[in-house]
Specification:
This protein has about 290 residues and is of the alpha/beta class. It folds into 3 domains: about 10-90 and about 180-185, Periplasmic binding protein-like II (D-Maltodextrin-Binding Protein, domain 2), CATH 3.40.190; about 95-170, 3-Layer(aba) Sandwich (D-Maltodextrin-Binding Protein, domain 2); about 200-285, Alpha-Beta Plaits (2-Layer Sandwich). About 25% of the residues lie in helices and about 35% in strands. It is built from 9 helices and 15 strands. The strands form 3 sheets. Strands 1, 2, 3, 4, 5 and 11 form a 6-stranded mixed sheet that branches. Strands 8-7-9-6-10 form a 5-stranded mixed sheet. The longest helix has 12 residues, at about 255-265. The chain is elongated, with a radius of gyration of 21 Å. The relative contact order is 0.16.
Amino acid sequence: MNEAAVADPENTVAFQGEPGAYSNLACRQVFPDMTALPCPTFEDAFDAVTEGQARYAMIPIENSVAGRVADIHQLLPEADLHFVAEHFLRVNHHLLAPKGASLETLKRVTSHVQALGQCHDTLRGLGLTPVSHADTAGAARHVAELNDPTLGAIASSLAGEIYGLQSLMADVEDAAHNTTRFIVMARKPVKPEPGTSTMMSFIFQTRNVPAALYKALGGFATNGINMTKLESYQLEGSFNASQFYADIEGHPDDRSVQLAMEELDFFTTNLRIMGVYPAHAYRKGVA
């Protein structure tokens, strides 16, 4: 993948973070022949697609250890984009350090607070002091710039490659299942062929009536639809209004899905289908 200046927007995928971020690594895995466009914020990555600077945006939405990515669900409804694919990235953290450093010289290690938390037991066992940084790739760049043998970083192998750092230890994460789910977003929706393994994602608010959520979701149970994810979050600081994000297994042409969505629509407001896209092979344990 070429991380150089963007030449062809239709051959470009945007991601949030610096070169070497795990989102950058996900771009390489899914779109190995496309140019990766680093963006300072998630909003900048969305805008890159909306404004035609990139064809896709690679956006992390949840991690098997840390849970949902902070703030991303509040940002998704504002993005005029569609989910067109999903990707599961096994997160393999590396303990990176400048050339010439060793486990004996290291005293501190810096990274994003979630990455530090995911490696808590390992770092404690090594006697290293964690230091929070804005992101993993930025931490690796910072360590490379300082060239201090007492300071290391937790980041991807790609970050080590980009910034010229050595990996003192691989797989330093405490949980072997540490995996991040990404959503690929585009300007136009896709619709997989009926009969294929398909996911649907949508956002909705419930009506202000008793048991509205129970009634809204009843159609999925009665029609045998598997809801793989349901999350709620407050709207604009209110304790009275909640918005929900949901993923289901199913195709919109399936009669059972149609019946369930009709019942959902009756008890909700501001229902928005975020996307219909192929289910990743990871869901069946084959990736």
